[in-house]
């Protein structure tokens, strides 16, 4: 009984698998996504009502302003850059932008007071993470309990042998083509690809989008995107991110910012305004050449 | 203006782009919105955003009754919403009822303390009431907390310039420049202020930068020509400054570029130069100013 047809084994799956596993799985994923979208909408508070302590914003924004100065210094005349540099250095040293919390200054190493606004943001972030992780965990346990140990589908694109251990988790057969996959792997693959479907049904910017959640989960991607925004050319101080689930010691964010201000002051000191390649240097000649070329071309 | 009316989908997309960009042309918005709202059902939930956009554009153009009609539709759907009330306050502003507008904005700010658009509208009211110094103070306060808003810095520069406080205006434009370093319009604005402050050498560099970013930028080219001609006449600023011949050369080639731009426009428009263009040509090719 040769099942081999050249290099591929001819396998025919029971149609019951399609009816009772594949279609319900797709339906469940779709419905869970829709539920996630509507639940997020219900949980979200209207914009602008979140309790924002503007002193926090002011701190971070002042830091960003200084970073921006260092990043784009070459677009301003040197005198303007010099004036701003000395202003920021003086202001940061005097702690002008710091949110003054006398308790945090008094006991340096003791437990810092809990930061209410920060707590709320952390809770909000955790709620969103929960909304995403819980359904995923549930579905995965459901699948591995009920739908393990058999093949579900053959993928339409070729795969190398390496993928077998990943995609055929319950099925240990050395000869089986890697394109045949189990239900858990089908779940993963569909999970990754569901975004366009949700985009069609729910419109753009829907809350069932898992790309943002993936970025939040994946620290590598987060740091990659941070450096990709062009911050690689200048050193940046460590700014503790708000909205990440930090539990006890939320007041530590304030201390972190004090350090950020100190390091930013150092970076400013290191900025040698004379070395900055001002775009205005020799620009008249550049423009003469540019316009001459332009006039001659047409 | 497009000779052919855009298709429904193109109009919707263009309206979406306008919502996210700062650069809005209210005439175009109203034109597109009218087209799109005729078949409003096709938009689904987007129709509300388009209605809001259309209401604001109509208020920009002073068509208050029609704006009020759009706002009434929104009010029926979203009764008591802060966002709709903001539009109502804008109607008060358009009618000149500034005290009512201000009271309403203050009320809304109590419900939404973090909404920066409300804070900016308050400043707009102050500006309309010609309380320029109050507007400047309020805007400075806003920018102290939220300095990464280029539009706000440019507005501050505008307010300072209208009060003849040119140095602070230049400072504000520099902040906007740090936030939008590749925007030719900001460079040209900076150049205008520098010129008014008497720093023609720096103004020339800034105009040059505007032209470097957008080589066909007519305002930039005019700036280059005027500054280059004048700097060529002045004594050199520093001993190692470029000699005046190089400035004259720059002025000449900029003139040619500008004339070329006018020629191209004449070709595209397919008709004679208007009187303004003829005067400009005379200035360019005629005597040095």
Automatic annotation (TrEMBL), chain A:
SMART domains membership: DUF106
One Pfam family of this chain: EMC3_TMCO1
Alphabetically ordered keywords of this record: Membrane, Transmembrane, Transmembrane helix
Gene Ontology cellular component terms for the protein in this record: EMC complex
Topology with respect to the bilayer: Multi-pass membrane protein
Keyword Cell wall biogenesis/degradation included in the entry's annotation: no
Subcellular location: Membrane
Domain of life: Eukaryota
Record field: transmembrane: 20-39, 137-159, 179-202
Keyword Membrane: yes
GO biological process: one example: protein folding in endoplasmic reticulum
Function of the molecule: The EMC seems to be required for efficient folding of proteins in the endoplasmic reticulum (ER).
Family: Belongs to the EMC3 family.
Protein's recorded name: ER membrane protein complex subunit 3
Organism: Allomyces macrogynus (strain ATCC 38327)
Species classification: Eukaryota, Fungi, Fungi incertae sedis, Blastocladiomycota, Blastocladiomycetes
Automatic annotation (TrEMBL), chain B:
Cell compartment(s), UniProt: Endoplasmic reticulum membrane
Principal location class: endoplasmic reticulum
Membrane topology, from the record: Peripheral membrane protein
A single Gene Ontology CC term: EMC complex
One protein family per Pfam: TPR_EMC2
SMART domains: TPR
InterPro entries xrefs: EMC2-like, TPR-like_helical_dom_sf, TPR_EMC2, TPR_rpt
Superkingdom of source: Eukaryota
Residue windows of the TPR repeats: 82-115, 150-183
Subunit structure: Component of the ER membrane protein complex (EMC).
Protein name: ER membrane protein complex subunit 2
Species, as recorded: Allomyces macrogynus (strain ATCC 38327)
């Amino acid at each position: 009984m040769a099942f081999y047809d050249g290099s591929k084994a001819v396998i025919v799956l029971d149609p019951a698998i399609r009816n009772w596993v594949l279609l319900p799985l797709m339906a469940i994923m779709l419905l869970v996504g829709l539920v996630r979208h509507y639940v997020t909408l219900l949980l979200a508070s209207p914009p602008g009502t979140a309790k924002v302590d503007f002193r926090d914003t002011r701190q971070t924004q002042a830091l960003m302003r200084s970073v921006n100065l260092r990043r784009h210094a070459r677009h301003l005349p040197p005198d303007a850059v010099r004036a701003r540099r000395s202003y920021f250095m003086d202001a940061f040293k005097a702690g002008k932008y710091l949110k003054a919390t006398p308790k945090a200054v008094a006991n340096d190493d003791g437990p810092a007071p809990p930061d209410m606004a920060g707590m709320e943001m952390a809770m909000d972030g955790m709620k969103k993470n929960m909304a995403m992780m819980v359904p995923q965990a549930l579905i995965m346990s459901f699948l591995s309990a009920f739908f393990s140990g058999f093949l579900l589908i053959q993928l339409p694109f070729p795969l190398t042998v390496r993928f077998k251990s990943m995609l055929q988790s319950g099925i240990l057969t050395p000869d089986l083509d890697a394109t045949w996959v189990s239900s858990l792997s089908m779940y993963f693959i569909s999970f990754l690809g569901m975004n366009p479907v949700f985009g069609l049904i729910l419109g753009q910017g829907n809350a069932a989008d898992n790309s943002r959640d993936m970025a939040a989960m994946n620290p590598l991607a987060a740091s990659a995107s941070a450096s990709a925004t062009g911050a690689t050319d200048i050193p940046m101080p460590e700014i503790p991110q708000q909205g990440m689930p930090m539990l006890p010691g939320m007041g530590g964010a304030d201390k972190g910012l004090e350090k950020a201000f100190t390091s930013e002051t150092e970076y400013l000191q290191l900025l040698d305004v004379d070395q900055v390649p001002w775009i205005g240097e020799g620009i008249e000649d550049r423009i003469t050449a540019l316009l001459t070329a332009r006039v001659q071309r047409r | 203006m497009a000779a052919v009316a855009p298709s429904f989908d193109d109009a919707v997309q263009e309206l979406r782009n306008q919502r996210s960009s700062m650069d809005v042309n209210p005439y175009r918005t109203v034109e597109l919105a009218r087209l799109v709202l005729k078949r409003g059902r096709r938009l689904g939930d987007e129709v509300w955003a388009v209605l809001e956009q259309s209401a604001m554009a109509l208020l920009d153009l002073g068509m208050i009754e029609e704006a009020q009609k759009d706002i009434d539709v929104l009010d029926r759907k979203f009764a008591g919403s802060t966002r709709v009330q903001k539009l109502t306050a804008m109607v008060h502003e358009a009618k000149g009822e500034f005290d009512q507008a201000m009271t309403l904005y203050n009320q809304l700010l109590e419900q939404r303390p973090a909404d920066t658009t409300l804070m900016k509208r308050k400043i707009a009211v102050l500006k309309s009431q010609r309380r320029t110094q109050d507007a400047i103070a309020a805007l400075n306060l806003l920018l102290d907390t939220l300095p990464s808003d280029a539009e706000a810095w440019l507005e501050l520069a505008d307010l300072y310039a209208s009060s003849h406080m040119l140095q602070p205006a230049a400072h504000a434009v520099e902040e906007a420049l740090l936030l939008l370093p590749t925007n030719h319009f900001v460079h040209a604005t900076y150049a205008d202020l520098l010129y008014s402050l008497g720093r023609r050498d720096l103004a020339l560099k800034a105009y040059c930068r505007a032209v470097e970013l957008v080589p066909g930028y007519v305002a930039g080219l005019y700036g280059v020509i005027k500054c280059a001609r004048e700097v060529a006449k002045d004594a050199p600023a520093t001993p190692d400054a470029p000699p005046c011949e190089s400035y004259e050369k720059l002025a000449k080639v900029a003139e040619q570029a500008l004339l070329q731009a006018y020629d191209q426009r004449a070709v595209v428009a397919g008709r004679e130069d208007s009187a303004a263009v003829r005067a400009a040509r005379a200035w360019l090719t005629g005597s040095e100013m």
